[in-house]
Automatic annotation (TrEMBL), chains A, B:
<dbReference type="GO" id="GO:0008124">
    <property type="term" value="F:4-alpha-hydroxytetrahydrobiopterin dehydratase activity"/>
</dbReference>
<dbReference type="Pfam" id="PF01329">
    <property type="entry name" value="Pterin_4a"/>
</dbReference>
<dbReference type="InterPro" id="IPR001533">
    <property type="entry name" value="Pterin_deHydtase"/>
</dbReference>
<keyword id="KW-0456">Lyase</keyword>
<dbReference type="GO" id="GO:0006729">
    <property type="term" value="P:tetrahydrobiopterin biosynthetic process"/>
</dbReference>
<protein>
    <recommendedName>
        <fullName>Putative pterin-4-alpha-carbinolamine dehydratase</fullName>
        <ecNumber>4.2.1.96</ecNumber>
    </recommendedName>
</protein>
<dbReference type="InterPro" id="IPR036428">
    <property type="entry name" value="PCD_sf"/>
</dbReference>
<comment type="similarity">
    <text>Belongs to the pterin-4-alpha-carbinolamine dehydratase family.</text>
</comment>
């Protein structure tokens, strides 16, 4: 099982992840899209990746705004897996920026 | 523009829509799935229908639980459009029950 990150580690991590914020046991980011269906396409990529990694974020689609929320239930908080996925999501988003 | 439903009309409507609940200016329903990706496939169908009708619900995907939340912003509350879409969502869900 992945080790839970300390508050110091979380602070350092968030400093390197623009747009991600700490919210209790979660890290959260909101992604904006020009078109509703671009946000949906982004969510489909996130979903495929989640299944592959067996690590699922909470996803909200509020019209052209997609919110992703990550935590590691089995560790009772944030782990390296959440950080790695947050980085992956940001990379995937590059494709959809302005779309 | 569609006419806003009265509270009496909303009550009558909800009586005929199992699982849908009133929450302020919204009606809300939670749909359960056996597999995460079945919920995502359901959301894709909802998204296509939303674009077609130009009426978008708020969507949350919390692992195998999908929550849909409808209102008519331009009417400041619930209209026949929300009721029609809620019925459509329930029909779409039939395909995914137990999946």
């Amino acid at each position: 099982m992945a080790k839970r990150l300390s508050l110091t580690e979380i602070d350092q991590t968030l400093a390197a992840l623009p747009g991600w914020k700490l919210d209790g046991k979660f890290i959260v980011k909101k992604y904006r899209f020009r078109e509703f269906l671009s946000g949906v396409a982004f969510v489909n990529e996130i979903a495929e990746l989640s299944e592959e990694k067996n690590h699922h974020p909470f996803i909200a689609i509020d019209y052209k705004l997609v919110t992703l929320r990550l935590t590691s239930w089995n560790a009772g908080g944030l782990t390296d897996m959440d950080v790695a996925l947050a980085e992956n999501y940001d990379v995937l988003y590059e494709k959809y920026k302005g779309k």
